[in-house]
Amino acid sequence: MTPIIPLSELRDRIDAIDQQILELVNRRAECAIEVARTKQAEGETGSFYRPDREAQVLRRIKELNPGPLGDAAAAHLFRELMSACLALEKPLEVAFLGPAGTFSQQATFKHFGHAVKDIPVPTIHEIFQAVETGHCQFGVVPVENSTEGVIAHTLDRFMDSPLQICGEVEIRVHQNLLGKMDSLVGISEVFSHQQSLAQCRQWLTANLPGVPCTAVSSNAEAARLASLDHSKAAIAGLTAAELYDLNVIEKHIEDEANNTTRFIVIGRLQPVSTGLDKTSILVSTGNQPGALHRILQPFAQYGISMTHIESRPSRQGLWEYVFFIDIEGHREDEDVAKALKTLEQNVKMLKVLGSYPKAVI
Q1: Going by DSSP bridges, is the β-strand pair 260-267/138-145 parallel, antiparallel, or unpaired?
Q2: How far is Cα 349 from Cα 323, in angstroms, rounded to an integer?
Q3: Domain carrying residue 282
Q4: Distance in angstroms (rounded) separating the CA atoms of residues 141 and 175
Q5: Cα 272 to Cα 181: distance, rounded to the nearest angstrom
Q6: d(C-alpha 299, C-alpha 19), whole Å
Q7: 279 versus 152: which is more confidently predicted?
Q8: What is the set of active-site residues?
Q9: Within 10 A of 236 (CB to CB), how many other CB atoms are there?
Q10: CA dihedral defined by 35, 127, 312, 306, rounded to 10 degrees?
């Protein structure tokens, strides 16, 4: 039988380990400061954020992790450590779809850590503007949801933006019914973003039949409105419940259990290849027979896996479309480079929106 260790002894061990952790964390921070000094001496200016390097570090942590701490938990700890170290130079300024309490803010913290300066912006268009004008170094925008499909505003904005996709992050979306009341009784109206209302359509029909559902600019705004009237409710995340002092009337009311939203990070960086990357492109063919075949053929020729394709009106001619495509690999990879070169010769326009590390956490 394994002997029981006295609680006082265990606490002494924890205190000693905590002291070692603190010393090592600060040694790492000192190294991060030296990295910044070396980069400045070598002429590197601007942001020292390197999404490719951070992705490699987090993957290595997950590979080295012996447990019992889970890989995801270990990666999150190091994500926050890297965020804090980077902020010693200057916190990154990142625009997200506000106000505070949205899934976009949650995605921002998941990708960059909590040491960033997160700046709420009211629309996707204005997030692009904030980064294009240099007001923020990066932006986080939703691009697709596993239940409701693509976010058209994001795709359309890429048609005339010089920004690159620098990274991606996925958020498992759990929708909750929030309000000042304790039950479904007496709810006269439900507020939420149109995407969230769509993701909870079946639940709302079954549990609140006949109750008006009103689309607003964000789930956080829905929670704010619900906090002003005891007969109103909101569909939002648990962070919004805390921010606006609302009760969680019902948890996880989304119709699909695996409901996930994919966000992308936009900026001016062009991450280098990490070995586990994606490349996003924008292609225009004109209204011609066999156009889609000419798009797909180079990827098949060079063995490139295509993970997503979406068409949008080009707004340049009747029945003309552009295609947004995600493929496996980095534009610097030999086969990807060959496929893109062949594709460019076969289409009216090719725009590489970015090559970036696949989401790690």
Answers
A1: antiparallel
A2: 10
A3: 269-357
A4: 19
A5: 51
A6: 53
A7: 279
A8: 261, 263
A9: 31
A10: 20
Does one domain contain both 290 and 353? yes
Residue 114 lies in a domain: no
Question: Which is nearest to 163 in space by CA: 360, 336, 352?
Answer: 352
Residues 121-154: tens digit of each pLDDT: 989 999 999 999 999 999 999 999 887 788 888 9
What number of other Cβ atoms are within 10 A of residue 228's Cβ? 9
pTM for the complete prediction?
Answer: 0.88
Q: Tell whether 33 is covered by a domain.
A: no
Tell me the C-alpha distance between 184 and 355, whole Å: 47
The answer to whether residue 206 is domain-embedded is yes
- Both 290 and 231 in one domain: the answer is no
| CA 150 – CA 148 distance, rounded (Å) | 7
Strands (DSSP E) found in the chain: 93-97, 117-121, 138-145, 149-150, 164-172, 176-179, 189-192, 213-215, 232-236, 247-250, 260-267, 277-284, 306-313, 321-328, 349-357
Burial label for 209, CB within 10 Å (0-12, 13-18, 19+), is: exposed
For residue 140, report the phi and psi dihedrals to the nearest 5 degrees.
-120, 120
Provide mean pLDDT across the span 300-306: 96
What CATH number has the domain bearing residue 353?
3.30.70.260
Quick check: 101 and 240 in contact, CB under 8 A?
yes
Could you check whether the bond before residue 3 is cis, i.e. omega within 30 degrees of 0? no
String of DSSP letters for 47-116: ----HHHHHHHHHHHHHH--SSS-HHHHHHHHHHHHHHHHHTT-PPEEEEESSTTSHHHHHHHHHH-TTS
* 273 and 348 assigned to the same domain: yes
Tokens (6 digits) for 181: 């009341």
* Residue 243, domain CATH: 3.40.190.10
- For 225, the 3-state DSSP assignment is helix
Distance, CA of 48 to CA of 37 (rounded, Å): 10
How many domains would you assign to the chain?
A: 2
Report the percentage of the chain scoring pLDDT > 70.
Answer: 97
Paired tokens of 206: 């079954």
